[in-house]
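Structure representation:
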Amino acid sequence: MARRETERYLKWLFTFAGSFIAGIFIMNIAKSYFLSDGGILNPGTLSRLKHLTVDGTMLLRYTLFERTKIAFILIIFSTTFIGIAAAYVFVIWQGLLTGMFLTAAVIHYGFKGILLALAGVFPQQLLLIPAWVMLLEWCYQLCCKFYFPHKDKEMAASQRHYLVRKGVILLWIIGVVIIGSILESYVNPIILSELLNVF
């Protein structure tokens, strides 16, 4: 892995970690709002989930639509001069949501809340996290190609097959997202349902 790419991944990691901590802080400060009866992960919601039958097909359509929408927005922004900033906004947003979700789970249920949070993202995130990182890198490189060619010297040496390579990579990312969404729609509900029996 090129040094510049490694540094970029580290910057995203630190950005995620900082926003994750911010999400924890926000949840603790505003828990009276977020953890009300209709708030995040309240016992009433979990009780209803125990008896909910998940339609995998409908869930798959929903998850694919939502992820396709986010990916499309990132790709569109990557064709503008604010594409790099958009990638960082996405990382911050994910860090905030993760920190808030995990904190809510712990406040409500203690150690069991951590298990609940893990069950909620397993096994799909094993594929989706790498896919999002790959998409961020894809968008970053495209933005650099259009507006900041000095940021990545490797791209300047691969003009001939640039579009073909980018297309193949994007198809690979889409394929991983589809597989991850299938796991979320058909496998994750089974895992989550089993875990909910202890709540």
